[in-house]
Task: inverse folding
């Protein structure tokens, strides 16, 4: 039983990353939606965290705002759009695929293709037997033989 | 062909390296504002505790002005405040204040202590107007033109240098147009 409670403490402590108790919506279904939205929005103060993870005051304001909009009956997209309209695509932790992000999304695939092509040609090249070297001239042959003879 | 295999990774490294070097010169806290060339969002804020008048969008229209987001808890505001005082003293440009998420009384205490450079101050205790403005931190300053459109946003404190190099020329240009 004790083991179970310790285990439970670890397993369910993940919820501590989410909204603070005073922010939670009463309806668990709506709260779950709010938490999903939080996880996708960047905290603009501490930029490597989502607003779900951040304890910056601005992140708290945004969490409350997300819950207010959801309680008003807005869809997830509408809530996201509301915040993107104010802070730009920058607040989305997953940038949308569009003209100015093509490089971002396309580069890894392009790099993989280039690397694969490079590896293909490199490996194919290395299988070819080394080109036979030109036969030695008579002078060279004599020189080699002389040296070998000297060494006995 | 063989040579390309060896040169190519170096080329890739140079391109990627140049990209990152450029990235290092940019300030990540400077998020481009969504409001540029759009009208200042509508708001009507009450006065901060201890002052008479609040601040609404209507007050700001009519001439080129600055809207400055400040707070008593904001450290860089200490750097900026004397510059704002100088600007007001020199009658350089009207400055409106948005007191962001300050406890009641703190905003007034700040202004009593360091002086009040603002034509009017609005109390944004809940931070809602700041979100409408896309504020990411304090201080932040919006340059608003005669028609009430946001034309520029300064992230961080306005220094004397920044004023003479960037803001003053911009404001003069906006006044001419």
Result:
């Amino acid at each position: 039983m004790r083991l179970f409670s310790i285990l439970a403490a670890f397993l369910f402590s993940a919820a501590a990353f989410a909204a603070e108790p005073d922010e939670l919506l009463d309806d668990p279904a709506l709260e779950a939606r709010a938490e999903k939205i939080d996880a996708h929005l960047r905290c603009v103060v501490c930029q490597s965290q989502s607003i779900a993870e951040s304890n910056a005051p601005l992140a708290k304001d945004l969490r409350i705002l997300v819950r207010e909009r959801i309680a008003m009956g807005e869809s997830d997209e509408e809530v996201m759009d509301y915040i993107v309209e104010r802070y730009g695509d920058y607040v989305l932790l997953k940038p949308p695929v569009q003209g100015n992000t093509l490089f971002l999304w396309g580069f890894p695939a392009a790099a993989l293709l280039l690397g694969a092509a490079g590896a293909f040609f490199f490996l194919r090249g290395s299988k070819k037997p080394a080109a036979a070297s030109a036969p030695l001239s008579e002078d060279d042959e004599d020189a080699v033989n002389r040296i070998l003879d000297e060494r006995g | 062909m063989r040579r390309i295999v060896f040169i190519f990774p170096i080329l890739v490294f140079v391109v990627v390296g140049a990209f990152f070097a450029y990235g290092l010169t940019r300030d990540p806290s400077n998020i481009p504002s969504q409001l540029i060339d759009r009208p200042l969002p509508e708001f009507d804020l009450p006065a901060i505790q201890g002052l008479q008048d609040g601040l609404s969008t209507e007050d700001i229209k009519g001439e080129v002005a600055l809207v400055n987001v400040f707070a008593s808890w904001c450290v860089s505001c200490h750097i900026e405040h004397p510059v704002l005082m100088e600007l007001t003293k020199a009658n350089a440009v009207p400055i409106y204040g948005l007191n962001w998420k300050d406890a009641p009384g703190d905003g007034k205490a700040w202004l009593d202590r360091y002086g009040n450079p603002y034509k009017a101050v609005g109390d944004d205790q809940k931070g809602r107007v700041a979100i409408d403005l896309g504020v990411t931190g304090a201080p932040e300053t919006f340059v608003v033109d005669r028609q009430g459109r946001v034309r520029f946003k300064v992230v961080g404190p306005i220094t004397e240098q920044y004023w003479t190099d960037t803001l003053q020329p911009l404001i003069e240009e906006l006044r001419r147009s």
